[in-house]
Amino acid sequence: MHDDDQSNPHAGSMRQRKGQVSRAEERRGKQVLTPDPWSWRRGFCVGCCVVALPSLFLAFSYHQGWLESASSRREALMENLRNRVYVRIGRSNVHGVGVIAVRSISKGTNPFVIANSGPCGDENVGSAFVSEDQLHNLPEGVGEIVRAFYGGWECREGRSGCEGLRGWTYGVGLKGPNGLDISYYMNHARKRANMAPTKPPGCRWVSFAATRDIGAGEELLLDHTFMGPLGFQELPE
C-alpha cells in the first residue's frame, strides 16, 4: 500500500500550511461574527446626543432669553435714572429727615416711579393686616415703625383680609418695613402740601403727584390726613 505522505517529503509541511490557512480563515469568520466591543458605546453616545440636543437647545434659548431680558431690564433702569429720579432723603425743615427734590418736578409728575415695575408699582407683592395686639408682641421700636409708616384700618367681621382679627390694624406691605420706598418719608403739612395722593386706573394702592411745580432743594410735603380712619381705601378712583 502506497503512502503519499511517506513518499513525498513535502507532504507534512503542506498539511501544516493548509491547517494554518484553515485556522486563519476560521479566525476571520469568527471576527466577522464577534460583536464590536465599542458598538454599544457608540450607540449610547448617539442616543445621548439625540436626547441631549433638544435640552441643549432649550438651555441656549433660555440663556438667550435671559440675556435679552437682562438687557431690557438694564435699559429700563437707565431710562429711570435719566428721567424718573427726582428726590433723595435729606434734612427736613419740618421734622428730622424728609424727601428733598434734587431737580425740578413739574406739576402732575409722580416722582416715585419704580424702575422695572408695572403702572401700579410693586403692589402685586400685596399686603397683610397686622393688629395692635400683634404689634405689642414685637421687639421694642418695631411697632412704632409700623404705626409711623402704614395706614390704619378697623377690622370688622366680614371684611376681606381681617380673618381672625378685630379692632385697629395696619396694612403692612408683605416686603415689610425694609421694603419701604422713599415716598414713605414725606413729612406732613396741610397748607404747605405740594404733593397729593392719586390712584392710577386699575391699581389698588395710591401713588402721588406734584400739585404744583417744585424746585430743586424743596421738600416734598403731603397732607397725611387723606388716609382717614379707613386708610387708602377711602381714596376714590
TrEMBL record:
| Residue segments, region Disordered | 1-30
In terms of InterPro entries, this protein maps to:
SET_dom, SET_dom_sf
Question: SET domain spans which residues?
Answer: 83-225
Q: Which domain of life is it from?
A: Eukaryota
What's the protein here called? SET domain-containing protein
